[in-house]
Amino acid sequence: MYTFGLAGFPVGHSLSPWIHGQLMKQTGVEGDYQLFEIKPEDFDEQISEMKNRDLDGFNVTVPYKEKIIPHLDGVDASAAQLGAVNTVKRTSEGWIGYNTDGTGFLHSLQARFPDLFEQEINVLLLGSGGAARGIFDALMKQAEVQVDVANRTLSRAESMIAETGGAGIARAVSFDEAEQAAGEYDLIIQTTTVGMSPNEDTSILSLQNLKEGTVVSDIVYRPVMTTFLKEAEQKGARLHFGHEMLLQQAVYAFQIWTDLEPEARPLLEKFERKLKGE
Ligand code: ATR
Question: Are 233 and 250 found together in one domain?
Fold first, then answer.
């Protein structure tokens, strides 16, 4: 019997209990996934209390992915480089932190488009926040890519590139430049919060110049079909959805906790229906 949890604020609408419930069912494991909504002023005290509970591991979400690190006994190399943890496991060496966001993104993309990374590709990454960093790091480690990064605050794009060892592989560009050059990319990844419910009608960038067959990904999963993806679809793009990443990062967290290897694919359709409220 396992006990897992999620620390964040707010966590009331989290899909993680549902996802991990499905993963337990798929692997025949018995367990429980609890939500820990922690107010910022109570963070230190509540995390100490969580660590004294009978938990095997827990996820960490906004706004604590960085703040959790001093509370841990160790952090794996990739999470340490990113300075962000989304998965914590109780081990014989204490509480160890991992980050499954970037690999979750990349592997869900590879599962859908197995041939995408067969040759070097041009990528446009929109955004330079926490989510963008994880994705950028995973992309650079595992794929032959040239990356343009566009962000509202250009200096944040520049520092993300410099801090993640991207010099020579990536460059910061303006939204105008990215829009003009949209037809030159093989893969476009939207990582900002623009287009997220309740602002479904907004989109970060016009895709007017997009070429057919480009893979366009949006990590926003509420709604499943964002305005950005709708425009991409109209231009003949191949789509990758935010809930695919969400599911895969949870699969990797579950794998870290249990050493079992559940599959995301059989759950995708059911998850999409749940998100659409069907
Ligand atoms: P997360 O950890 O979810 O990535 P974050 O670190 O707050 O969240 O980053 C949010 C991203 O969305 C950033 O790239 C942010 O751009 P800035 O770096 O300029 O703040 C981007 N973003 C949020 N709201 C935006 C808006 N209205 N227009 C353009 N970009 C926006």
Answer: no
